[in-house]
């Protein structure tokens, strides 16, 4: 069983693409240090369960959208893709072995999931940069899942090579740097005058 309690049936965010809706589910999730260092099967299974639960959540929301139950809220009945955003990067999270384990876990529970990508928060920021550069979010998702092995940024590596940071993140960074004391604001050092 992927989940012990019923999850929210909605993704955290939705973005309309040209031909499909991209559902975004954010999870405070990263692999444990123990998993990264030792690779215990129980820790790997726990991570698979958490990712599978997030994929199930966006899949259930996608089913409701496809059935037309979200049309009144601006989400027309159409195909959906999912993005699960994690706090930390999950090495090989979009690789065949991990995705296969997630798929098997969902199928055990009777869930035939939607196409999805597992992105860390920094990878998701680069996804947003691709949208800012004029790429439709659903087209990005199709490109990532088409012969790419699921890895991000995949086919977009050259596009992001010189600038992979979204304008929102850049603005926050600039504001933070501007708030730091400059040389003229710093206390004098080594001066006895």
Description:
By secondary structure, this protein is of the alpha/beta class. Helix content is 42%, strand content 12%. It has seven helices and four strands; from the N terminus they run E-E-H-H-E-H-E-H-H-H-H. It has helices at residues 33-37, 41-66, 96-108, 121-132, 137-145, 157-160, 167-179; strands spanning 13-16, 21-27, 80-86, 116-120. The protein has a four-stranded mixed beta sheet, sandwiched between helices. A hairpin with a 4-residue loop joins strand 1 (13-16) and strand 2. Helix 2 (41-66) packs across helix 3. The longest helix is centred in the first third of the chain and has 26 residues, at 41-66. The model is unreliable at 1-7 (pLDDT under 50).
DSSP helical segment count: 7
- What Rg do the Cα atoms give? 20 Å
What structural class do helix, strand and pairing data support? alpha/beta
Provide mean pLDDT, rounded.
Answer: 83
Please give the share of residues in helix. Answer: 40-55%
Strand content: 5-15%
Main sheet?
4 strands, mixed
- General form: globular
Count of individual beta strands: 4
Distance between the termini: 72 Å
Tell me the series of helices and strands, N- to C-terminal: EEHHEHEHHHH
Describe this protein with a few key phrases.
alpha/beta, 7 helices, four-stranded mixed β-sheet, single chain, 193 residues
Summarize the SSE layout with pairings.
Blueprint: E1 13-16, E2 21-27, H1 33-37, H2 41-66, E3 80-86, H3 96-108, E4 116-120, H4 121-132, H5 137-145, H6 157-160, H7 167-179
Parallel strand pairs: 2-3, 3-4
Antiparallel strand pairs: 1-2
Helix pairs in contact: 2-3
